[in-house]
Amino acid sequence: MSVSEIHDLIGCDDMEPGDILRVEAGGRVFAVYRVQDEFYVSDDQCTHGPGFLSDGCLEGYEIECDFHQGSFDIRTGEVIEPPCSIPLRVYPVTLRDGRVTVEIQAQQ
């Protein structure tokens, strides 16, 4: 049976445009990105190696991992630059009462 988990990650006002933050919630580690007034969330772990995307460089909608400089589109998880080849897991974001939340389907 599939159930849904909602994770409250951070207040919208706690981030400036261009910020990336590492947030732990529900036993997971997320990277939260702010591009202008939009928020995006992905797994923090790079799919290629031991790098954390929250330590990377955000340019527009592209996050570059600081470990091997591979990059992803934070909207879709699509690989933009190698050596990454596995897409990044991204999560749909909902803004609730001025907070960034994600809803994740969990197996029970």
TrEMBL record:
Keywords: 2Fe-2S, Iron, Iron-sulfur, Metal-binding. One of its GO terms (molecular function) is metal ion binding. PROSITE patterns: RIESKE. Its cofactor is [2Fe-2S] cluster. Residues 7-102 form the Rieske domain. It holds the Pfam family Rieske. InterPro entries: Rieske_2Fe-2S, Rieske_2Fe-2S_sf. PANTHER family: FERREDOXIN-RELATED, RIESKE DOMAIN-CONTAINING PROTEIN. Belongs to the bacterial ring-hydroxylating dioxygenase ferredoxin component family. This is Non-heme iron oxygenase ferredoxin subunit. It comes from Fertoeibacter niger.
